[in-house]
Amino acid sequence: MDDETARDQVVTAADRLFYAHGVHAVGMDAVRAEAQVSLKRIYSLFPSKDDLVVAVLHHRTEQWATGLEAAVRAAATPRDRLLAVFDFLDAWFREDDFRGCAFINSFGELGATSPAVAEAVRAQKAAFQEYVLGLVREEGLPDVVAAQLAILAEGAQTTAAISGDPAAAAQAREAAAVLVDAALARGEHASTV
Amino acid sequence: MDDETARDQVVTAADRLFYAHGVHAVGMDAVRAEAQVSLKRIYSLFPSKDDLVVAVLHHRTEQWATGLEAAVRAAATPRDRLLAVFDFLDAWFREDDFRGCAFINSFGELGATSPAVAEAVRAQKAAFQEYVLGLVREEGLPDVVAAQLAILAEGAQTTAAISGDPAAAAQAREAAAVLVDAALARGEHASTV
DNA sequence: TACAGTAGAGAACGATGGTTCTCCGTGCAA
DNA sequence: TTGCACGGAGAACCATCGTTCTCTACTGTA
């Protein structure tokens, strides 16, 4: 097995375990067992557990971006593309192993003690906001709407995680629709005056 | 020192330490040092660290409710009372030691391993939603608005915590105002038709 | 003064976990 | 075949931490 596939197996296994049980609750030996890669090899690929956590977060960042972009691309109009973000959340919340946002969870667990983890989480959230901002601008809406939609998305994630009820996605979607339409109405009003 | 004040000192000290550094990062010995209460005493008051964590969360729940209710009471109109929730968040986010919502952080850290902690967090969030629901009904708005406002509040908390920027409160407040006004307009429209 | 009971300081204990090390088997080169 | 570099399995090491225990000091009482 070459380094690349070993690395992949370790990251995938660690992701699964960390997400399901939390980082502290999972020992490196459990990662070794799940990944079927020796501890020696793991430590040759990742200098420390902290580095592995960061690698897992980067991996999740890519996965998330890929899935989100696919969901958005499937929508027809700019307005639907904005709301597709929340449909994407809805589908995610309904998955059996949904346990909230891995980034928010990791931040709560390690943000105070690991600057590298805190930075990885910050980067992911910033990237998401940037992505939403792009969608908002396509719609010709003011930038502030992007921040509002991002806040709705974050709130839906924590609410769904803690309450265990996926309904938060639909509620956030409805709120997003109201915000978007209100901004559209204001824009049209402004342009017609 | 009687049991009650000892208990208070321990909970207050543990709250400060857990919030600042996370639960795992703080040993019971650090709690003992900060609270100036012997380990023996601590363990006679709380059977385990987990029980202490739950006690801290309950303490925070009361503190939060008290502060929020005071902020809401200071507002004049029902609409202002709804928005006062976000002004309360704004003031909180600007505090020097703000490190996000302790409940969300604790859930991320321990929710997967400690049912008692998960339940305490769930209870706090449910109580908050219930409180917002009361304010929304005072305004004569449909219940769904309460869920939307609660999601905005949660999103503002995680966004402010991760980005480190208190602006999320003002952005959420603006979104809340739009949602409330839209609901009011729909209501008036419905009653005038 | 002698004593019983309590509480505190801090050592001790047992478990766990991150990280490193040792030992062994394997495959490859000459 | 011999020697060697490599990788794996898992023990070992060291630190930390939750929890308990021991020993000592002190308080109030007869």
Structure explained in plain terms:
2 copies of one chain form a homodimer. With 193 residues, chain A is an all-alpha fold. Chain A has a domain at 77-192: Orthogonal Bundle (Tetracycline Repressor, domain 2). Chain A has helices spanning 3-21, 28-35, 39-45, 49-73, 78-93, 102-110, 115-138, 143-163, 167-192. In chain A, 42% of the residues are buried. The model of chain A has no long low-confidence stretch (mean pLDDT 95). At the A-B interface, α6, α7, α8 and α9 of A face α6, α7, α8 and α9 of B. Chain A binds a DNA duplex (30 and 30 nucleotides) through residues 24, 27-29, 37-41, 43, 48-49. Chains A, B: Keywords: DNA-binding, Transcription, Transcription regulation. Chains A, B: Residues 4-64 form the HTH tetR-type domain. Chains A, B: This is TetR family transcriptional regulator. Chains A, B: InterPro entries: Homeodomain-like_sf, HTH_TetR, Tet_transcr_reg_TetR-rel_C_sf, TetR_C. Chains A, B: It holds the Pfam family TetR_N.
Chain-wise SSE layout:
The structure is a homodimer.
Chain A: H1 3-21, H2 28-35, H3 39-45, H4 49-73, H5 78-93, H6 102-110, H7 115-138, H8 143-163, H9 167-192
The structure holds a DNA duplex (30 and 30 nucleotides).
InterPro entries (chains A, B): Homeodomain-like_sf, HTH_TetR, Tet_transcr_reg_TetR-rel_C_sf, TetR_C
Pfam families (chains A, B): TetR_C_13 (PF16925), TetR_N (PF00440)
Keywords (chains A, B): DNA-binding, Transcription, Transcription regulation
